[in-house]
């Protein structure tokens, strides 16, 4: 079992947010790889490559960590799935135009020279092939959240991400991803085939109101890039966790907060009882008198608010 260092996602992590984000991205990519050759750059533990291999003709996962690749190769064994150790800026695969789809999720922010990665993508991607790449929005992920990921070397704002891809691809379509709590309503009859209808709400100072879809600010950007015209139908997508782990985690945090609050109340009550005790009042009075009579034997305790002897 690989150890969680925070550098890469592992499917057994208990953090529901991270699970939702990573699994949803690969599930979304899987719809575009049927019967195609796929390269998964920075494949990590291998779960995503394995997921895409269910429909792809061939999937090759690349990661710079040898231990991670050994793990992936032993855990996910299929005839159309292989893993190789290597860098996404110098992919250990010879030739050109080999893969129909190349996926690179949450990796380019881990390297300094993005162009080296994109050069490798263009070398290995077949003419008209599809490149699916994601990266966090520096503005939302780091600056707004006041968070610094120690494994991120060069994060991008949206304009920088857009300009980078425009240097290499003629056509680019962007999607946004972010976890929002909400409600799902769907038909139970397979005879119905409704379109996708979205409602967005926001809470003001007192109540919820319906707002425009532009109010949804993504935490991650996902780009679909190709030199060919897009023929696939790029749709919105949702993923539902029937285990409801996120809700369970929130309940645990809420219960822990309530417990801590109750413990604090109990401690305050106990402290008040001690301070109201006659012996406590007498001792406090003796210390105050002692401090006045023998100031050279006393020091101030700011936190207690009363003089205490040096002994």
Tell me what the structure shows.
The protein is of the alpha/beta class and 311 residues long. It has eight helices and eleven strands. It has helices spanning 16-30, 47-52, 66-75, 114-124, 138-144, 158-166, 245-276, 278-293; strands at 37-41, 58-63, 81-85, 99-105, 125-136, 171-177, 200-203, 208-211, 220-226, 298-301, 306-309.
In a nutshell, what does this entry contain?
By secondary structure, this protein is α/β, with parallel strands linked by helices.
Structural class of the helices, strands and pairings? Answer: alpha/beta
The average pLDDT value, as a whole number, equals: 86
* Structure summary, number of beta strands: 11
Which percent band covers the strand fraction? 15-25%
The global form is elongated
Give the helix level as a range of percent.
25-40%
Order of neighbouring strands in the sheet with most strands: 3-2-1-4-5-9-6
Low-confidence stretches: 300-311
Helical segment count = 8
Task: Tell me about the largest β-sheet.
Answer: 7 strands, mixed
Radius of gyration: 28 Å
What sequence of helices (H) and strands (E) makes up the elements? HEHEHEEHEHHEEEEHHEE
What is the end-to-end distance?
A: 55 Å
């Amino acid at each position: 079992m690989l150890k969680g260092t925070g550098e890469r996602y592992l499917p057994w992590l208990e953090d529901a947010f991270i699970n939702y984000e990573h699994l949803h991205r690969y599930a979304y990519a899987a719809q575009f790889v049927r019967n195609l050759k796929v390269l998964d750059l920075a494949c990590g533990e291998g779960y995503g490559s394995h997921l895409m291999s269910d429909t792809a003709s061939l999937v090759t996962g690349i990661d710079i960590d040898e231990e991670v690749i050994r793990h992936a190769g032993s855990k996910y064994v299929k005839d159309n799935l292989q893993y190789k150790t290597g860098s996404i800026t110098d992919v250990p695969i010879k030739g050109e135009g080999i893969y129909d789809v190349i996926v690179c999720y949450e990796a380019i922010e881990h390297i300094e020279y993005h162009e080296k990665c994109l050069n490798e993508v263009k070398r290995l991607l077949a003419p008209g092939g599809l490149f699916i790449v994601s990266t966090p929005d520096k503005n939302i992920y780091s600056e707004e959240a006041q968070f610094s990921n120690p494994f991120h070397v060069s994060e991008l704002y949206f304009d920088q991400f857009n300009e980078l891809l425009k240097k290499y691809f003629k056509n680019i379509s962007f999607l946004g991803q972010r976890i929002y709590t909400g409600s799902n309503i769907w038909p139970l009859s397979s005879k119905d085939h409704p379109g996708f209808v979205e409602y967005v709400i926001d809470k003001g100072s007192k109540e919820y109101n319906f707002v425009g879809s532009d109010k949804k600010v993504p935490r991650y950007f996902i780009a679909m890039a190709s030199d060919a015209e897009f023929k696939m139908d790029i749709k919105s997508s949702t993923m539902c966790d029937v285990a409801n782990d996120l809700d369970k985690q929130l309940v645990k945090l809420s219960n822990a907060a309530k417990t801590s609050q109750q413990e604090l109340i109990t401690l305050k009550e106990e402290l008040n009882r001690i301070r109201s005790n006659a012996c406590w009042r007498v001792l406090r009075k003796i210390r105050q008198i002692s401090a006045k009579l023998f100031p050279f034997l006393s020091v101030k305790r700011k936190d207690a608010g009363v003089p205490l002897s040096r002994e």
